[in-house]
Amino acid sequence: MIENHTLADRLRARADQLGLAPAHVAEMAGVNRSFVYDILRGRSSRPGIDRLADIARVLKVDRDWLIHGIGEVEGPSPFVENPDDAFVAIAHATPRPSMGGSAVVNEDGDTPGRAYHFRQSWIRHKLKASPAQLRIMHVEGDSMAPTLLGGDAVLVDMTRQLPNPPGIFVLDDGMGLVAKRLEHIPNSDPPAVRVISDNKLYPEYERTAEEIRIIGRIRWFAREI
Strand, helix or coil at 139? Predict the structure, then answer.
């Protein structure tokens, strides 16, 4: 079979197979996180061979497999004949967004936790997203009830940081990390958004674009009953 995967594809697939976030791969290999993220984002055309060897050691593969797709892989290959049937693990993010206020997220601050696996075809075709840019978080509080309840797991697409169209986002509103519904306020100058709680006991409020930092759009949630 012809190898059609790139270095980034192989690194991402193997890390997902082993349940390792890119930040953890970098830490275990003793390389800068930016080295790994630049490869995954296609920003590094000629990464250092020595550092790739360190990453290959962590991923338990031959360096040549990582670079060219030729060589040994410990255990089963991360690629299957029908990739649409494959499931990928989505990394946890450290903070727990409040529907009231919490700690500020660290962009690459992943921490090991219970794995959530999603069908790769659903992520690609329905969400039109990359697994590397998705994070699982858990929310707290009741201001987004009944849509979201405390303890719900949410899937956050960190590439979607514009409130257009309106939706539910994780954001730092200047007071902490929150999960809220955002709407762009038309013709606002400077540009501003309306921050809305689905629980009408909590009043909506407004923030300028410079006063908030949108972490990502919530695309899915799960709840234990």
Answer: coil
pTM for the model stands at: 0.60
C-alpha distance from residue 117 to each of 21, 80, 191, 194 (Å):
13, 16, 37, 33
CA 143/CA 53 separation, integer angstroms: 48
DSSP string, 57-124: HHHTB-HHHHHHS-S-BSSS-S--SSGGG-EEEE-BBS---BSS--PPPPTT-B---S-EEEEHHIII
Report which DSSP code applies to 140. B
Q: Which CATH class is domain 96-222?
A: mainly beta
pLDDT digits (tens, 9 = 90+) for 130-172: 888 899 999 999 999 999 999 999 999 999 999 989 999 999 9
Query: Which residues of the chain are in CATH 2.10.109.10 domains?
Result: 96-222
The CATH architecture one would assign to domain 7-77 is Orthogonal Bundle (1.10)
Give Cβ neighbours of residue 33 (< 8 Å, ≥ 6 apart): 22, 23, 26, 27, 108
